[in-house]
Specification:
Rossmann fold; 6 strands; Isochorismatase_domain; about 200 residues; single chain; Isochorismatase-like_dom; Isochorismatase-like_sf; Isochorismatase-like domain-containing protein; 6-stranded parallel sheet; alpha/beta
Length: about 200
């Protein structure tokens, strides 16, 4: 049976890509993208989904921004665009080889794209959280999302991820997840993307 892209807590991993200080002034909708990624991270912590964090050339681009809430995570430093560095590969192996990746971060046309292609080629299911992914240019961002969709990644949203992971108001962690959904996700300029589909 063909995969329909159902997200499950089991066999999932959260990948947080390069949300660093030097990108702050240049990334489209950075504050709102970061807010959404932070909510996804909080939900994954509640549900026991392991997070993995990377930083692109931190000596030049600075550390991960504190608002993400990832100060307890040891970032994997990289210069390549794909997140699948040797250190990340080891961490994925230690986690038992997750089958599904939830992907947030920047930039859509570079590190998010290269990571997605690598994961897809390995047979992993990739869920790109479109309202938690951005670029310096809205054009690059929207075309990257379109290209990722063509390549077989599932495009989703912060709220959709949280609700798919619990699936039922009777879930033991539903009330905690519901608190994260108390306010709708902020606008991240995706309406123009979906009006072109």
């Amino acid at each position: 049976m063909a995969s329909i892209g159902r997200l499950l807590v089991k066999d999932s991993v959260l990948l947080l890509c390069d949300m660093q200080e030097k990108f702050r002034p240049n990334i489209v909708h950075f504050t709102n993208i970061l807010s959404n990624a932070a909510r996804v991270l909080q939900a994954c912590r509640i549900l026991g989904i392991p997070p993995i964090l990377t930083e692109q050339y931190p000596r030049g681009l600075g550390p991960t921004v504190p608002e993400l809430g990832a100060s307890d995570l040891k970032p994997h430093e990289k210069t390549q665009f794909s997140m699948l560095t040797e250190g990340v590969e080891k961490e994925l192996k230690a986690l038992g080889g997750p089958k599904k990746a939830i992907l947030c971060g920047i930039e859509a046309q570079a590190c998010i794209a290269c990571t997605t292609y690598d994961l897809l080629e390995r047979g992993m299911e990739v869920h790109v959280v479109a309202d938690a992914v951005s670029s310096r240019s809205q054009t690059d961002r929207l075309f990257a999302l379109s290209r990722l969709r063509q390549s077989g990644a599932y495009l989703t949203t912060t709220e959709a991820v949280l609700l798919q992971l619990v699936q039922d108001a009777k879930h033991p962690n539903f009330k905690e997840i519901q608190k994260l959904l108390a306010h709708p996700s902020p606008d991240t300029g995706l309406l123009s993307f979906f009006s072109s589909l």
